[in-house]
């Protein structure tokens, strides 16, 4: 369903570090959350050519943030609905499940 999502992140106590981004889909929003974590890992482990992590590590990263929330506006609606960290985690989990199913189908077709 088309929507507008504002992702708001405050990594620590410093108010000047607050950021936000706007997306047109939930998938794009959760992809950004994953990309932020991947970027952090790349800076932390620059010598590693490929970064691997599991969903628990991503969720731990999210839990370490001072705040991460989404404001979701469905198409045609005039208000934004606040969504908390747990909702974002559920969307990430659902997104990864859809991605895995697509990749598995592709592998099966190649076999």
From TrEMBL:
PANTHER family: ENHANCER OF RUDIMENTARY ERH (PTHR12373), ENHANCER OF RUDIMENTARY HOMOLOG (PTHR12373:SF0). SUPFAM superfamilies: ERH-like. It comes from Drosophila pseudoobscura pseudoobscura (Fruit fly). Pfam families: ER. It comes from the Eukaryota. InterPro entries: EHR_sf, ERH. Coiled coil: none annotated. The gene is LOC6900099. This is Enhancer of rudimentary homolog. Belongs to the E(R) family.
């Amino acid at each position: 369903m088309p929507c507008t999502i504002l992702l708001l992140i405050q990594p620590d106590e410093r108010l000047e570090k607050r950021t936000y981004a706007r997306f047109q889909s939930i998938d794009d929003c959760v992809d950004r959350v994953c990309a932020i974590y991947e970027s952090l890992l790349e800076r932390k482990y620059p010598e590693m050519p490929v970064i691997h992590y599991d969903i628990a590590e991503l969720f731990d990263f999210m839990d370490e943030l001072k705040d991460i929330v989404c404001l979701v506006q469905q198409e045609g609606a005039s208000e934004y609905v606040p969504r908390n960290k747990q909702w974002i985690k559920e969307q990430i989990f659902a997104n990864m499940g859809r991605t895995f199913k697509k990749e598995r189908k592709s592998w099966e077709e190649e076999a």
